[in-house]
Amino acid sequence: MSASSRPLDSDQLAAVELLRSARRFVLCGHMRPDGDCIGAQAALARVLESRGKDVWVINPDPPEGRFAYLSREVTYRAWTGGELPVHDVAVMLDFCEPQRLGALEAPLFAAGSKKLVVDHHVHAGTAFWDAAFVDVRAAATGLLVRRIARALDAPLDRVAAEGVFTSIVTDTGWFKYSNTDAETLAVAAEMVELGVEPNRLYDALYQQRSREHPVHVGRLLARTDYLADARLAVVAWPQAEVVESDLVDTDEVLDILRSVRSVEVVIFLRELKTGHVKASVRSKTEFDAQALCRQFGGGGHRKAAGATIAGNLDTVRPRVQAAALEVLGALGALGLGAPSAAGRGG
What we know:
inorganic pyrophosphatase (n-terminal core); disordered C terminus
C-alpha cells in the first residue's frame, strides 16, 4: 500500500457514499479561510462537478487576494445574508466547530440539508454531523479531498490539483513542519505531475507583499516578550495598532520567533474590534497547543492551535500567559522541555 492510498474506515466510506448519492452541495469554510480551507474547497468543488453535481462554495469571508489563481477558476461566495441555495448536503471543510461559521452558522443549520464534515482537527464534544470524513493525523484537509476523489474514481484537473497542493503547502509551512509525512510528499509530487507549478504558486502566496510588509513585521517582533527563561515568547497586538490584515502574516511572525533556540512555545495575541482577542499558539516541543487553546474555547492541532477569547489584552493576556507558564513548569519538571524540530501538526 502506498502512502498516498490509505484504506478508508467505515465512517469515511459512509461519507463518500453521501457524496456519491447526493446531487446538490454547499461547500462551507471557516471565518477568514486559510490556504488549507480555500484549497480543499477548490479541489472538492471540481471533483463533485466532474461527477455532474451542482456545487456552491460559500464562506463567512472572501478569500485573500493571494489565492486569486484559485478564485479565478472557482467562485467563492462570501455570505451576506439572504437565502442559501437549495442543497442536499452542506460540506464543512477544515473545521469541526459550528461557531467557526460566524454569521453563516444559523442559516446553514436552519437548512434541512445533511451535514458532512471533512477535516483534520481534533473535535471535543458531541458530534453534530450526519457524516464525517475525518483524520486528525492528516497534514491538511486537502489530503482528505484527494482520498475522497480516489474513492469516487474522480480524476483531478489542474485546478483541483492546485487546490490540493495549496492545502498541503500552507498547512505544512512548505514541507518544513513536523506534520509533513510520506503521504504529504507523495501527494504533492502527484499534483506536480498533474500540472502544478510550485514556483508559480510560491510566488503568488509568498512573493507579492507590499513594501510596508517588512516594516510591520519588524514592529510586531519588537513587541516580543520572553518569559520563563525565554522558553515562552509572547507578542501582543493592541487594536489601536492593528493594520490591514494583508500587511502582516501572523504565521510569519510565529515562525520567526519559534526559530529562536530556547523558545518552546509562541503565543500571538491580536486584539479585535469585536471585544475579543485572537490567540494563535505554536509549539515545537511536547507543549500541547491544542490543549491550551481548549481551555479558552478554541482548538486545532497539537503544535498549532488558536482561540478567540472575549475581553481585551489587559484581561486576556494574563490568563493565557499563566496557563502557558503552568504547562511549561509541568513539562520542565518532567524533563520534557527540550526544543525539537518545529512543527505545525502532530
